[in-house]
Design goal:
The chain is mainly beta. It contains four helices and 39 strands. It is 8% helix and 43% strand. Strand 18 (263-266) and strand 19 (269-270) form a beta hairpin. This is BIG2 domain-containing protein. It comes from Candidatus Ventrousia excrementavium.
């Protein structure tokens, strides 16, 4: 029943006195399964229907949430309860050699179970006839280091042509070019840029040329020019470049990328170029794009939709694994990297109603709620926003009802009244760092949320004269954790007077020692800062990159687990306009 073809074109015919054999009963099951799976594949597609989220339990273990998916043969993959696995026991782990990206997939699996005695069967190992009474449907998790081709995972290839421009030295540049364009309309050519384990900054440039298409300002070619300013070892971004189509009637044209106009550099090193010009055809139609794409989809061969191709699988997550000869750990998780979601009819109806309904229909408000990020919306204008994190030590045996406090630290906005918001980080979701708990965490202490952070109340105490903060938590439940990490945001509302010591000076300079340094992952280094021309030597330390490590109030920097170039800043507390930067290159020895 683990069949790969839909060939059940006949079913049983019953009549009184018919002698039923194993073949008849198996044919009955195969017919029903194939018809259901054919409907799943052709009417719904393949992808995640619900759940199947992947969480990081520790640096070697993942947790799969319950959920359901349909694979590329229409078979249902159902995980009825959460599953915790070390990745070392999964199929494909032996393929991991060194650090890099690994894809976690899920596949349909069935096996015989519930052994039973067979009257007519052949003898088993112990001389007794042995058979199985049931077929258990389930799933199998697997790992692969091969990056799948996104074009085979969905039907996007009907509309878009993916063209790989460059794929060397850990850098990949891909063009997403529409196969069709509407006469007199505009369209976007998307540049997909990705770097993996590359610590140096990347710069690339090339030209998009066409006989019939023009740029936004009427130019005959569109110049793509990108320079990486915020340098990280791993990055993925999308750049859109708009091209306009003239009043052309039902014709073919092309988009070209000349090889001699392509340049790429990684740091100070040249990265090479394509051997030949890249040319992709584009069909210009006077009909609507919706009609053209619909016709192109129905022109696909039936076998192309039914036959599973290489690389067609359900990919639940992309794991960045740091590995050496003796050990490994998962540095980062990206959930559902290829957005293999199947939208139900109910969800599609809801999304359609949002597109059609005016904003007043949502709760009677004229403002549509936006996706939450790590910074809360401020009530009114703010002159400056600062944020940071503090770890509060709970000790070996934390007591319920007891309050625990952080050290008093300088928030960086100077003396005077400011507004502060505090949230506790949910340490269970390391792959989802934006999961924060505002207010009392006891509200979410149910099985539905499965929070690892203990239920607690959070508070902040401001010393307006000194320009300092002190954070506190009060435990509401028993916990085995020894620390709680709090995130804070501080801003000065519009109209609030600035303290006397928050001044602006042109002759004050901050100097950081050392200004450049090389560290290994997770290594520590202490920075010192001198505020020249000022009696107050107090500075506020910060790391510019979100995942660029951490630094305490005394300048002790801890490098992140990943490689890259990261910026450390020191800002004068008295003179907020005076600050300096130092750069840390994190790489393995």
């Amino acid at each position: 029943m683990n069949n790969l073809q839909y060939d059940s074109a006949e079913r049983n015919h019953y009549f009184y006195g018919k002698l039923m054999t194993v073949r008849d009963f198996e044919n009955e099951q195969t017919y029903m399964n194939d018809k259901r799976r054919l409907g799943n594949r052709m009417l719904h597609g393949a992808g995640i229907v619900s759940g199947l989220g992947v969480l990081l339990v520790d640096n070697q273990t993942i947790s799969l949430e319950a959920g359901m998916a349909l694979d590329y043969l229409g078979r249902e993959i159902v995980a009825r309860e959460p599953c915790v696995k070390q990745i070392s026991v999964l199929r494909g782990f032996d393929e991991i050699h060194g650090s890099g990206d690994v894809y976690l997939g899920i596949a349909y699996r069935e096996e015989l179970c519930e052994g039973t005695f067979s009257v007519a069967g052949a003898a088993g190992q112990n001389g007794m006839p042995r058979e199985y009474n049931r077929v258990q449907e389930g799933y199998e998790l697997f790992l692969t280091t091969r990056e799948p081709n996104p074009a085979v995972l969905g039907v996007d290839n009907v509309l878009y042509d993916l063209c790989r421009l460059y794929d060397e030295n850990g850098v990949t540049i891909t063009l997403q070019i529409p196969r069709f364009a509407a006469a007199g309309d505009s369209f976007a050519v998307r540049v997909l840029f990705e770097k993996r384990d590359v610590s140096a900054p990347v710069h690339f440039s090339f030209t998009l040329e066409s006989d019939m298409f023009r740029g936004e300002n009427g130019e005959r070619s569109v110049r793509v020019d990108y320079t990486e300013t915020e340098v990280t070892t791993h990055k993925r971004l999308e750049l859109d470049y708009t091209m306009a189509c003239g009043p052309v009637q039902d014709d073919y044209t092309e988009i070209r990328v000349p090889a001699n106009g392509f340049s790429l550099s990684i740091g100070s090193r040249e990265g090479g170029r394509p051997e030949d010009d890249v040319v992709r055809p584009v069909r210009v139609s006077s009909r609507s794009l919706r009609e053209v794409v619909t016709d192109a989809y129905f022109d696909l061969h039936f076998d192309d939709l039914l036959t599973a191709r290489e690389g067609q699988a359900i990919y639940l997550a992309k794991l960045h694994v740091i590995a050496s000869q003796s050990t490994y750990f998962i540095e980062k998780i990206t959930r559902n990297p290829f957005r293999q979601h199947l939208l139900s009819a109910q969800l599609l109806g809801l999304l359609q109603s949002i597109d059609k309904a005016p904003s007043q229909a949502l709760g009677g408000s004229t403002a549509i709620p936006q996706a939450a990020d790590s910074t809360p919306e401020l009530p009114g204008e703010a002159q400056q926003i600062l944020t940071g994190a503090e770890v509060i030590n709970l000790g070996v045996s934390p007591k319920v009802g007891r309050a625990y406090f952080s050290h008093e630290f300088i928030h960086g906005l100077g003396p005077g009244n400011i507004c502060v918001v505090v949230a506790a980080e949910n340490t269970a979701r390391q792959g989802d760092p934006d999961t924060l708990i505002f207010g009392s965490g006891g509200v979410f202490s149910t099985e539905e949320f499965s929070l690892a952070a203990p239920a607690c109340q959070t508070a902040a105490m401001l010393n307006a004269k000194k320009g300092t903060l002190q954070l506190g938590v009060k435990l509401l439940e028993k916990t085995s954790q020894q620390t709680v990490r709090l995130r804070w945001w501080a801003w000065r509302p519009s109209g609030e007077p600035v303290g006397r010591n928050q001044e602006v000076a042109s002759d004050v300079r901050v100097v950081i020692t050392p200004n450049t340094s090389n560290l290994e992952p997770l290594q520590q280094l202490r920075f010192t800062a001198v505020v020249e021309g000022c009696a107050s030597q107090e500075v506020n330390w910060s790391v510019v990159e979100k995942n660029g490590g951490s630094i305490d109030r005394n300048g002790l920097y801890t490098a992140p687990a990943m490689e890259g170039v990261f910026e450390v800043q020191a800002q004068s507390v008295k003179y907020g306009n005076c600050h300096a930067s130092a750069f840390v290159v994190v790489s393995k020895a």
